[in-house]
């Protein structure tokens, strides 16, 4: 791992991993001069901006809006959390694995609810996989083998700029030596997006008709004839043509996005999609995979599953992990007004949540741990700035296809890393009380 | 046997109270002091039932809660006998895993009412939330037996993953009523949301109003199902009175979900 760079020198760091989106490109080259990032090569605009603007909008340590030292902030945070009866730990996706792991230790220690930003984007995907399983593969297999790529309810051209060139559209691989010419790319969405321009075919469907379409495709695949002439605003014959393309492909993949997970039907949309792709395996090799948004969203689900058995919406208030989306998920905890304190790490909860949920967050003691100022840090009781993971702090991240990659530290930060902040809060909470709020604390703290 | 009456001292408003100890099985052989000492959890804190309720009476499998407890969860969960009456609203998970006895909720029930129940009767005078009679995440089957009768409206995915038993809803339902159900019966007197019976394998959903069906349900015939007359006779005993038209009339039968094995039935008055 590249260590921090000395001042008054120019350093070129190769093989840097981009922390911005789920593609997690690990081929960036970063030029650092006098401890400042001067140039970023190979990255897309989004990735480049993340590095170039990382000095802008830094948060400052504050308690109740007044400047404080990091130590004071950590003490104040520990005090809030140790007293809370039903705290929430949320955010966590834009950081690295060890910080994520520490957040779970903290949740265990204080008997908290722990949930991450996936909960409001791809949690339905996780639930669907739990319900029916998934036939999936890595992006490497897509690059080398896929001759049919379907983007459904996602827009990689804008949200995952290098996914098409690195893996799914123009990428050349072992069995796809001609790149785009060896692949058929189909885009399905409720409106044309820039992704449609790189696709060989675009199918425009009616909003909120995905569940009906997947169900119909599954019935057609089973050999049933349907009474309807069209489903989702598209003629049955067109769906039959799509099915034929799917069945006759050598290696197909269906990528889905938030157009499916966050619309009416939610996880049941994905259940229908996953069963369709599984059933296609009677004819050919067919996979499905979610297009995950932020840098390390997959990581948090991985670590949480490894530590507690569940990927999100976990509650530790009774001393053991429980899982129940609809009850322990961030949206429901806030909408029901159940939590009495919150620690938000690397997420702008106030800025992104609907008014009612943000309202409850504003009414309770809230700790914001974040490298940058946001709507959340503006109203937080305690603000603890940190070194941005993947730029000013190293660690590990999972790519969207569950491959772990090393994130490098390319510059120094005056602030501690997310992990260090969490470690110090944990130490403080353990010192302050030993299970004084009824949360079970084993000797030597919680499990690591 | 005079009931044990729980008078609400201090109803929790924010942090939920988990009180699976409010169960006839636990009250039946306990003195008043012992009932007061039963454990409950306020968030991550342990408390005594007596901290939140004033207990009157003892050693009874009849429980009455005198007031609304919308933030009290798991009431009557796993109970096997007796009766719980709540004179008001109740929080999540009421009657989940229930194996016998009866729960009467005079107000509204929150989400996860009677989830994975095996036997017994739950009646709600008001509305119920999402996933009543359904399965907890990760479970293969929802309700396995017993009856849930809701006089008001319900949320989405009610009766999802159902394996056996009966759900009767006098009001309206939201989306995915009986989704992925494996067997059992749902009788809806109000209006249904979208995707009723989505992914159902077997089982029956009776909808008294026209429903927008998924493309994967196929029309079969119009007939007068004898089974319904027997069902309605049973419902009369629970105070549900179908109109003569509903009780004796003709129904259109659809089967599906063809995306699955397609042996479920949806009946709609012709
Ligand atoms: S595609 Fe994503 S991971 Fe790659 S450089 Fe762009 S923002 Fe970073």
Ions and ligands: iron/sulfur cluster
The total strand number of chain B stands at: 17
Helical percentage of chain B: under 10%
Query: What is the helix tally of chain A?
Result: 18
The averaged pLDDT of chain B comes out at 96
Percent in strands of chain B: 25-35%
Give the terminus-to-terminus CA distance of chain B: 49 Å
Biggest interface, chains and residue tallies: A-B, 44 and 36 residues
Number of helices of chain B: 4
Described by the principal axes of the CA atoms, the overall outline of chain A is globular
CATH-defined architecture of the largest domain in chain A: 3-Layer(aba) Sandwich
The computed structural class of chain A is alpha/beta
What's the total number of strands of chain A? 21
The name CATH uses for the topology of the largest domain in chain A is Rossmann fold
Residue share in helix of chain A:
25-40%
- CATH top level class name of the largest domain in chain A: Alpha Beta
**H/E order of the elements of chain B?**
EEHHEEEEEEEEEEEEEHHEE
Provide an overview of this structure.
The complex is a heterodimer of chains A (448) and B (270). By secondary structure, chain A is α/β, with parallel strands linked by helices. Chain A folds into two domains: 58-119 and 295-393 and 413-447, 3-Layer(aba) Sandwich (Rossmann fold), CATH 3.40.50.740; 123-290, Dimethylsulfoxide Reductase, domain 2 (3-Layer(aba) Sandwich), CATH 3.40.228. In chain A, 36% of the residues lie in helices and 19% in strands. Chain A is built from 18 helices and 21 strands. Chain A has a nine-stranded mixed sheet. In chain A, a hairpin with a 6-residue loop joins strand 15 and strand 16 (322-323). Chain B is mainly beta and 270 residues long. Chain B has a domain at 111-269. In chain B, 10% of the residues lie in helices and 27% in strands. Chain B has helices spanning 24-27, 32-36, 226-237, 244-248, and strands spanning 4-8, 17-18, 39-42, 45-48, 53-56, 62-66, 72-73, 83-86, 102-105, 121-124, 147-150, 166-169, 185-188, 204-207, 218-223, 251-256, 264-269. In chain B, strands 5-1-6-8-9-10-11-12-13-14-17-16-15 form a 13-stranded mixed sheet. A four-stranded mixed sheet of chain B has the order 4-3-2-7, with no helix packed on it. The N and C termini of chain B lie far apart (49 Å). The model of chain B has no long low-confidence stretch (mean pLDDT 96). Classes of the chains: A alpha/beta (448), B mainly beta (270). Chain A binds chain B through residues 84-86, 110-112, 127, 130-131, 211-212, 214-216, 218-219, 222, 224, 226-228, 231, 264-265, 268, 271-272, 275, 316-319, 323-327, 337-340, 437-439, and chain B through 14-16, 18, 41-46, 71, 92, 111-112, 130-131, 136-138, 175-176, 179-180, 194-195, 198-199, 214-216, 218-219, 257-259, 262.
